[in-house]
Design goal:
about 250 residues; alpha/beta; Arc Repressor Mutant, subunit A; Rossmann fold; 2 domains; seven-stranded parallel sheet; 10 helices; elongated; DNA-binding; transcription regulation; DeoR family transcriptional regulator; transcription; DeoR_HTH
């Protein structure tokens, strides 16, 4: 099999899998590791894959995320239960961070009886929390994302860096052996800063996020403490999470 045929086969493999390892390329085509690496370099130079340590992942299709209100309409009872379980982890006088994701908004809604302080970059979360008398809200400054109504950018990250909290609650797009990923750089920068500011990090994600890798990595498993989800996690990935000290809570 010549290189062109191998490249097509690798691309086909990546239409059905999130990633491929060097060893897998060697096994598929009975070639050396050097040849496998050259194949991956060729695909990367053509912007068809993204090389990773020990292999590669498919190049994501750049896309617009559905508007915040459209995503809110798709929230299910399972999302609401995830939010309630997350809210149950918040203790009296906790200082917490809530990101701008719709799943995390279900946690915000469940805070009506809590006594806590919330830091957020989301106008939506602040609006939900404003009527709750025992919740103090700090809305960080920065550049406004007009479609999704959250703050981002250098100023927002700097504003966020002033706050140290007990817990951070974040939503993500993908959880896979490549780590925790989201779709866009500006969102990723904010979530990374949130992770740095928190003693404990909770990821809120329904079962559709598992096994997926999106464009920007925000954390390795060892950087988070707990995932709250709606269904049991596939055994191999669950083993990785446990080995990295991640607690998985299922509603």
């Amino acid at each position: 099999m010549n290189q062109g045929e191998r490249l097509e086969a690798i691309k086909h493999y990546l239409t059905e899998h999130d990633s491929i390892q060097i060893e897998k390329v060697c096994d598929m085509f009975q070639v050396s590791k050097d040849t496998a690496r050259r194949d991956l370099v060729r695909l990367e130079n053509n912007n068809q894959i993204i090389r990773t340590r020990g292999g590669a992942m498919r190049s994501p299709i750049v896309r617009e995320i559905a508007s915040y209100h459209e995503r809110l309409k798709k929230l299910t009872d399972a999302h609401k239960q995830i939010g309630k379980m997350a809210a149950a982890e918040i203790e009296k006088d906790d200082r917490i961070i809530l990101d701008a994701s719709t799943t995390v908004q279900t946690c915000a809604i469940a805070l009506s009886e809590k006594e806590c302080t919330v830091v957020t970059n989301s106008i939506h979360q602040a609006d939900v929390l404003a009527p709750f008398p025992s919740v103090t809200v700090h809305l960080v400054g920065g550049q406004l994302h007009k479609s999704h109504l959250y703050m981002y950018g250098v100023e927002a990250c700097h504003s966020l860096s002033r706050f140290f909290v007990n817990k951070a609650f974040i939503g993500v797009v993908g959880i896979s052996n490549n780590g925790i990923t989201v779709a866009h750089d500006e969102d990723a920068a904010m979530k990374k800063q949130m992770i740095r500011q928190a003693e404990e990090v909770f990821v809120l994600a329904d079962h559709t996020k598992f096994g997926k890798t999106d464009f920007v990595k925000i954390a390795d498993f060892r950087e988070i403490d707990c995932i709250i989800t709606d269904q049991a996690v596939e055994a191999k990935l669950m083993h990785q999470l446990i080995n990295q000290g991640v607690k998985v809570m299922v509603i």
